[in-house]
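Suppose a colleague, Dr. K., hands you the sequence of a protein chain of 296 amino acids and asks what its three-dimensional shape might be. Before reaching for any lab equipment, you can write down a predicted structure in token form. Begin with the sequence itself:
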Amino acid sequence: MKKTSIFAATIFLFTLASVAKAKEHHFPPPAAFAAKVAPQNQPPQTLQQFVDQVFLMVTPIEIWCGPSRLGTATGFFFENDGKLFLVTNRHVVRVEGEHFFPDKLRVRLHINSQDHTQNEDYEIALYRDNKSVWREKPGVDLVAIELSKPDMLRFVLISLSPKFLPPNDLVISPGDELMIVGYPFGFSDALHNYPVVRTGAVASYYPTPFQGRPYFLVDARLHPGTSGSPVLTAPSNVMRTSGAAVYGDYHFFFLGVNSGEINLPGNTSGLNAIWYGSEVAALTSSNFVSAFFPRP
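The predicted structure, expressed as tokens, is then:
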């Protein structure tokens, strides 16, 4: 966003073979490789199947306060402990220092698995009984908003879950290519409601928290509108672990959520903060307790 510095967040929902019914379905977890060990049982995946799913996993967000449209963002859906959430950046829903207080988000979702030109808007209120509805962790630029699963049944949705987090022995090196899926400046294939995919490279020591905060850096040419975009490893049938490189079905992993460019005095950096995916899993867990904020 221009005035509010909002970069897009991204809505993640995954459907597979039963997507024609427009119900929620789990995308099969990434191939669980270990050195000299076969993947866990799951339907074989082709590269084309993964590509198709990437273009259905996000949704544009419009940010509103009353009748006024304040900006755009990206969001994604995340399912954890039996609940479904919309995940985006905290600066999309509230920025006290800038007196930025939207009251609803409007997302656009597919309603026909065979014809992706058919879409509908869906509004998400940010306050209920004059209290905020989102979950947040102090100091982390993420929020999760619980959604009604029955409301989502008419949409073609694809959701991430903790199963998409990388295994502990996965090797991710500086310079490795990543995908950032979102809506720069709100730009997209609006006819089909498809996002734009940008590529970037790991730019800090993964998985070490950068300067002690739970994010890492990605070197990428991103824009306002892509904050909150999910950040994924590029689809591959090779998985590098600390013990070996193993071949199997195509897979990708959910590494984190884009939050925007790191500002350097007097210069643009091209370096973007990516909050670790484990923060999303923690935020959406059943035992997470969040503070509430009064409606302005």
